[in-house]
Design a protein that fits this description.
This protein has 392 residues and is α/β, with parallel strands linked by helices. The chain has helices spanning 15-30, 74-84, 96-108, 120-128, 131-145, 156-164, 219-232, 258-264, 278-287, 302-309, 340-351, 354-368, 373-391; strands spanning 2-6, 33-39, 50-53, 57-61, 64-71, 88-91, 112-116, 150-153, 172-174, 206-210, 248-252, 270-274, 290-293, 314-317, 332-335. It is built from 13 helices and 15 strands. The protein starts with a strand and ends with a helix.
């Protein structure tokens, strides 16, 4: 069996891109014939099963300067896919590359499989707060996914979103969650890493966020929460004589809301590190003390799994996929999405209780270890084999 996977995101930095890179790596490691096809100007991994075609045109995405909008060369993609002769086409994203891949699959008369990585209607709702735009986006997603033989969802919660789009239940498969547990691990904890960042007290409790810094990630809410944390500490954070009780917010990532968030959190011990990669990112995860992820639109929240694997208790909202991979009260807390008082109190309580954080962090680490990317890929591949047996 050979699968051609089309994606609009591979060279940029996000959970979907990391997942696809992991899938490509696992295919090579397990001897599976999977080929990733994309079109981008960004740097991508160089390996035999990744094919990067230059776009006909490309520009930075409006309001998201670290993302790219491309017009792929459809004919070259068709020629490449014909040479590969896949038995199935997998569409990872419903963008321009995904649209070309969808057309190619229908032209070559091979089954379509896809993954619902991103809840675009929810994003549109957050960005524009206009029911008409949300309805149009939902209709576009319904049309896009209608011919798919199977659609993976990253969580049970978003199976409901696909059902609301009109996708029959028999076509929806919840993909086993998985990350590279060798890369994100508690053993990488190294407090000396904070010596590289002079503004962050080495002995403060580090509260970490990793991801895109944008409105649709509910970061205006986290901004309100952190301002309450800063104002309700035993003393103002800058003056607190007990560093272990004065938390520091560490934000890793970038996005259109970053400048405003930095302005609003000036003087409240919030530190913005931009993008971090590789071993440094692994060490930063493991060397923090608590992870916060206020998003209400994520279908899984890969960073939540990475944080738990690194030994951090996590705080997530009760909306979206991340709540399904957190055991409330044991590996973290699942909190109401709009209760800023409860979020701030929970952060302060955990910041002051080292032993509770340690117990929850150890439980979080143990919970994620069986959720390997290898097992997730094996499930991914089995479903494609089933489609080839039943849909051809």
């Amino acid at each position: 069996m050979r699968v051609a996977l089309f994606t609009d995101t591979l060279g940029d930095i996000n959970g979907v891109s990391r997942f696809i890179r992991n899938v490509a790596d696992q295919a090579l490691a397990q001897g599976k014939d999977l080929h990733v096809i994309t079109s981008t100007r960004f740097e991508c991994p160089r390996q035999p099963n990744i094919h990067v075609l230059p776009p006909r045109a490309a520009t930075r995405m409006p309001r998201y300067e670290n993302l790219e909008l491309v017009l792929p060369h459809a004919r070259r993609m068709l020629e490449l896919t014909r040479r590969l002769a896949p038995g199935a086409v997998h569409i990872s994203t419903p963008g321009p590359v995904g649209l070309v891949g969808r057309r190619i699959a229908r032209r070559l008369r091979v089954p379509l499989v896809g993954t619902y990585h991103t809840d675009f209607p929810a994003y549109i709702d957050h960005l524009f707060d206009d029911p008409a735009y949300t309805w149009l986006c939902s209709r576009a997603m319904r049309t896009f996914y209608k011919p798919f033989a199977r659609i993976f969802t990253r969580s049970a919660d978003y199976a409901g979103a696909l059902l609301r789009l009109g996708i029959p239940r028999r076509r929806i498969v919840r993909l086993l969650p998985g990350i590279d547990t060798n890369v994100f691990h508690a053993r990488f904890r190294d407090p000396s890493i904070w010596d590289r960042f002079p503004g962050i007290p080495r002995d403060s409790v580090k509260v970490l966020y990793v991801g895109r810094i944008s409105v649709e990630k509910n970061l205006p809410f986290l901004t309100r929460v952190w301002r309450r944390v800063a104002s309700t500490s035993p003393l103002p954070i800058a003056q607190c004589p007990w560093p272990s009780l004065a938390p520091s917010l560490v934000v890793i990532g970038d996005g259109p809301y970053r400048a405003q968030m930095q302005r609003e959190l000036a003087g409240s011990s919030a530190h913005f590190l931009g993008f971090r990669h590789g071993p440094e990112l692994s060490t930063l995860y493991a060397s923090c003390d608590l992870f916060v992820f206020p998003s209400t639109t994520d279908t899984l929240g890969q960073v939540v799994m990475e944080a738990q694997s690194a030994g951090l208790p996590v705080l997530v909202t009760d909306q979206g996929g991340p709540a399904e991979i957190v055991d409330d009260g044991r590996t973290g807390r699942v909190l109401p999405a709009a209760d800023a008082d409860l979020w701030s109190r929970t952060i302060l309580d955990l910041a002051a209780d080292h032993h509770r954080r340690a117990r929850m962090g150890a439980a979080a680490h143990d919970k994620i270890q069986p959720m390997s990317i290898r097992k997730s890929f094996e499930h991914f591949w089995q479903v494609h084999e089933e489609v080839l047996r039943t849909e051809r």
